[in-house]
Amino acid sequence: MTATKVTGGQVVSMEYTLRVDGKVVDTSEGAEPLQYLHGAANIVPGLEREIEGMALGESKTVIVEPLEGYGEMDEEAFVDVPRSEFPDDMPLKPGVEMQLTTPEGEPMYARIESVEAQSVHLNLNHPLAGAELHFDVKVVALRDATEEELDHGHVHGEHSH
Q1: What's the whole-number mean pLDDT along residues 110-121?
Q2: Which of 81, 85, 96, 125 has the fewest beta carbons closer than 10 A?
Q3: What angle do CA 13, 19, 21 make, to 5 degrees?
Q4: Which helix (H) or strand (E) holds 151?
Q5: Is the whole model's pTM more than 0.85, yes or no?
Q6: Strand duo 119-123 + 78-82: pairing
Q7: pLDDT (tens digit per residue) in 53-77
Q8: What number does CATH give the domain 10-70+129-152?
């Protein structure tokens, strides 16, 4: 039986545009729709909750508050790193983004907040922390997830094994 409404355990393909403060920050326009496994926390919680029950072909505008999006701005998530820790060829100026590795080996996003004589002040918040997210979404395809996708908790591409 073919699914016609979004429920947990389905692979949802959706076209989307994300705006923050009226500016487009992400969109599937001109690219493939986003595919995700519904109910597996692959997308921000506020958006996933709003998509639940949407019909195939349905469009919707969803506003997601920071708590259900990328979190509030965490005032503790700033660190000072000695300038000597950065490669010489790296431009050290506010707004430069980078990926760091935690002591556990996990990737972590960081953005330079300010640069002092001896140290660099890094902001470790997600770039959309504290932002109200405005999504325009359209469900363009639905299918049941495979056993393997359900086991792994995410969508597998047509070519992955």
Answers
A1: 96
A2: 85
A3: 165
A4: helix 147-152
A5: no
A6: antiparallel
A7: 999 999 999 999 999 999 999 999 9
A8: 3.10.50.40
Structure tokens at 19: 């705006």
Please say whether the beta carbons of 12 and 36 come within 8 A. yes
Q: How many residues does the chain have?
A: 161
Contact 38, 48 (CB under 8 A): yes
- 5-44 pLDDT, tens per residue? 999 999 999 999 999 999 999 999 999 999 999 999 999 9
Q: Which DSSP category does 85 fall into?
A: G
The residue with tokens 């429920």 is: 7
Q: Which amino acid is at 48?
A: E
Q: Provide CATH 2.40.10.330 ranges for the chain.
A: 78-123
Out of 2.60.40.10, 3.40.1400.10, 3.30.70.260, 2.40.10.330, the CATH code matching 78-123 is 2.40.10.330
Determine the Cα–Cα distance for residues 34 and 13; give it in Å rounded to an integer.
Answer: 5
Residue bearing tokens 């640069």: 115
Question: One-letter amino acid identity for 31?
Answer: A
Residue type, 60: K
Task: Give yes or no for a contact between 120 and 81, defined as CB atoms under 8 angstroms apart.
Answer: yes
Q: How many Å apart are CA 114 and CA 92, to the nearest integer?
A: 9
